[in-house]
Design brief:
This protein is an alpha/beta fold. It has one domain: 3-Layer(aba) Sandwich (Rossmann fold), CATH 3.40.50.11310. Helix content is 29%, strand content 24%. The strands form two sheets. It has a seven-stranded mixed beta sheet. Strands 7-6-10 form a three-stranded antiparallel beta sheet, with no helix packed on it. Strand 6 and strand 7 form a beta hairpin. Helix 1 packs across helix 4. It is globular and about 40 Å long. The relative contact order is 0.17. Pfam families: PhnH. Its EC number is 2.7.8.37. Keywords: Transferase.
């Protein structure tokens, strides 16, 4: 791996912080992703592996949604020392591109939401999608957004309503990161309000 574990992962961390503090901001991880050797990925996308290397350590646990879950879990464990565990106990939930439809909704419903005393013990959900620059239009409001922000997500999942239900008792809730095939990243923290921006077509 030609990735600089200190310098390059610091850059990834800064981009994660930027996108989380400014929901709607798309961060580009392609430069760092290009430094991840193909043989090191072992079932992971380069950008997902970057996030795992940046955020995971021996103190955290994770759950992978994928037909290759065991293989990917072994790779992440070997590289980060984080521990695979059950869905309801995991600190991080990883929804891979090849996960069964409905996996994201299942993860949201069953993920740890934290407690009033320790809301930070909630789960972080990381999702691989086709694109974070095309697809369904979503209107964002909330902290870090001046008025509103329009984003797009190309994902075949019914998840917005489940997320809204999960996050209704703030500060409890879950945070989401979406990464696409071009290594673009979009973060949606629990404080962000999401509305489907459907266009109404009038019959002429």
């Amino acid at each position: 791996m030609t990735l600089d574990i200190v310098h390059d992962l610091q850059s990834v961390y800064r981009k994660l912080v930027d996108s989380t503090s400014r929901p709607g901001l798309i961060s580009d991880l392609s430069k760092q992703a290009s430094l991840v050797e193909e043989e090191d990925q072992k079932g992971c996308s380069a950008s997902l592996l970057l996030i795992a290397l940046t955020l995971f350590d021996q103190e955290v646990s994770f759950k992978v949604f994928s037909p290759q879950a065991d293989y990917v879990s072994q790779t992440i464990n070997q590289l980060t020392y984080a521990k695979p565990t059950d869905l309801k106990k995991a600190d991080f939930l990883l929804i891979l591109q090849d996960a069964e439809k409905g996996s994201l909704e299942e993860a949201i419903i069953n993920a740890k939401a934290g407690t009033l005393k320790n809301p930070h013990t909630s789960a972080f959900i990381i999702v691989e999608v086709d694109s974070v620059t095309s697809g369904e239009a979503l209107l964002l409001k909330g902290p870090g957004i001046h008025t509103t922000e329009l984003v797009h997500l190309d994902i075949n999942e019914n998840w917005v309503e489940s997320r809204q239900e999960k996050n209704k008792e703030y500060p409890l809730g879950i945070d989401l990161i979406f990464i696409d095939q071009n290594h673009q990243l979009l973060a949606l923290p629990r404080t962000t309000q999401i509305t489907r921006n459907r266009v109404i077509e009038w019959d002429m």
